[in-house]
Write a structure and sequence with these properties.
This protein is an alpha/beta fold. Helices cover 20% and strands 38% of the residues.
Length: 132
């Protein structure tokens, strides 16, 4: 089994795509007006419009309702990313060195989903992520 993607459902599709394009410096593919996808080497981040909710009857899906997951992006330098993003994002936690050896900062996307940018900092963390 392979993790293929994470999909977010939103009523603000264009705003969410713009946020993640600014964050990553990459362009989403838009195969349909109600769907966008950022394909990376590690998996994909998909964003679907709330107009797609009827395609999933009985699943209980709603938009912008998550408060337990963190979307993570590994970056070369968290502090450099903080400076680049400056006031263009909502920062929930400034760059901090975590006990497991990553330097990380927490953001919120337009729907309030938590987004973590991290850099492996210690030799152990660098070794853990070397093959990913």
């Amino acid at each position: 089994m392979k993790l293929a993607s994470i999909r977010l459902l939103t009523s603000r599709l264009d705003e969410m795509v713009e946020f993640y394009e600014h964050l990553t410096g990459s362009t989403f593919q838009r195969p349909a007006p109600v769907f966008a996808e950022l394909v990376t080497a590690g998996g994909s981040l998909a964003i679907g419009s709330d107009a797609t909710l009827p395609l999933f009857p009985g699943t209980g899906l709603t938009v912008a309702s998550n408060s337990s997951a963190i979307i993570e992006f590994q970056v070369d330098d968290v502090d450099q990313e903080r400076a680049r993003l400056s006031d263009h994002v909502e920062v929930l936690q400034e760059p901090t060195t975590m006990p497991w050896g990553n330097r990380a900062m927490m953001l919120a996307d337009p729907d309030g989903n938590r987004v973590n940018l991290y850099t492996p900092l210690t030799p152990e963390a660098k070794a853990r992520f070397a093959g990913r």
